[in-house]
C-alpha cells in the first residue's frame, strides 16, 4: 500500500530565503508525482507534475525533483515571497481495479515572513 | 484554471437529512473523483468515476453514494447525514487515469 509523507508539517522562513519541501513515498514504482498548493479555504492548485521517467520539472521559481529509488521528491522554492505562504501537498497515483487513484501527503504549511 | 464548479460552496444541514453535492466540469475529462479533507487525515478518496455510469468506491465510501449520468456532472449524495460527515469536500478531474489532476474550490459541509 502506498503511503505518502510530508515533513515538516509546518515551516516558517524569512522572505527571500530559498527553501526545500519534502515528500516521501513508500512504493517506488510510481507513475508520476504531482505537487499542489492550497490557500486557506480554497481548492488545490496544480503546481508541477513530474513523470516517473523525469528527474526534474521546473516552473518559474519552482523546481521539483524526483528520486524514485529513494522514494523522495523535493519541491525547491527560490527567493521565497510572502505570497508563497500556503499549504503544499504532494500526491502519487496508486493503481488498483483498473484505475489510478491519487494518494496525498498531509502537506507542509509554509509561512514566509515579510 | 480548469473548468470545475462545485455547488453549493457552503451548506449546513441537520443530522439525518439527505444532502447532494454537485461537481460540474467543462473540460470533457473522463475521470472524476470526490475527496474529503479533514484535519489530521488529509485528503481521502470517497468515490470515483471512470466514465458515464461507471463509478467505484474509494477509501472512505461508507455513507456516500454517487452518480454520473453525463460526462460533465458527478453527484455525491449523503443519504442520511451524520456529524462525522462534517468536512470539506473536493471534486477532482483528470483526462487520463493517473494524469494531472485538477481540483474544484470545495464545498464546506457542516452537519449539526
Low-pLDDT segments of chain A = none
Show the largest interface. Answer: A-B, 25 and 23 residues
Provide a count of the helices of chain B: 0
Shape of chain B: globular
Mean pLDDT across all amino acids of chain B: 96
Task: Calculate the terminal CA-CA distance of chain B, rounded to whole Å.
Answer: 34 Å
Listing every helix as H and every strand as E from the N terminus to the C terminus, the arrangement of chain A reads EEEEEEEEEEE
Instruction: Indicate the radius of gyration of chain A in whole angstroms.
Output: 14 Å
Number of strands of chain A: 11
Taking the sheet with the most strands of chain B, its summary is: 7 strands, mixed
Structural class of chain A: mainly beta
Please write the string of helix (H) and strand (E) elements of chain B: EEEEEEEEEEE
Number of helices of chain A: 0
Largest sheet of chain A: 6 strands, mixed
Indicate the overall shape of chain A.
globular
State the helical fraction of chain B. under 10%
Please indicate the percent range of residues of chain A in DSSP E strands (runs of 2 or more).
Answer: over 45%
* Uncertain runs of chain B: none
Q: Return the structural class of chain B.
A: mainly beta
